[in-house]
Amino acid sequence: MQSWNDSLKIGVPHIDEQHKALFAAMEALYAACSAGKGRAEVIKTIDFLEDYTVKHFTEEQEIQKKSGYPKCVEHKKLHDDFIVQVKAIKKDIADNGATILSVSKLNSLLSGWLINHIKYVDTEIAQYVNK
Ligand SMILES: [Fe+2]
Fold it and tell me: How far is the CA of 88 from the centre of ligand 1 (A)?
């Protein structure tokens, strides 16, 4: 698993701090999985993500708008899609309990979507904010 490192910084400190917090949640989930406690941690992680991503995405979108970043609308769709996926996993857990499958779905979502989004989509914002 990729852990947080400076290459993930996009160069906008407020956003970088929030990405770091998202990574910390992902790392805690991985650590719990390694300790055989993934199913307990997944509920905590999903509750955190549901609140924190809404706050983070809202603030990131505000920063984008103020900076004149031209892809605000497309970018918001990506954020909304992530929230839909988090909510679907949450519903799955509510319906079926925290299963190995729900833990692995959340792990894949975080290690795939989150890392790619930061590296390849969010990095574009910095050139507008820091111009
Ligand atoms: Fe983003």
Answer: 20
Nearest C-alpha neighbor of 68 from the set 131, 13, 8, 121: 131
Domain assignment of residue 7, yes or no: no
CATH number where 116 lies: 1.20.120.50
CA of 61 to the centre of ligand 1 (A): 8
Question: How many structural domains are present in the chain?
Answer: 1
**pLDDT, tens digit (0-9, with 9 covering 90-100), for 57-100:** 999 999 999 999 999 999 999 999 999 999 999 999 999 999 99
How far apart, in whole angstroms, are the C-alpha atoms of residue 27 and residue 46? 13
Give a yes or no: residue 4 inside a domain. no
How many A from CA of 60 to the centre of ligand 1?
7
**What local confidence, expressed as pLDDT, does residue 1 receive?**
75
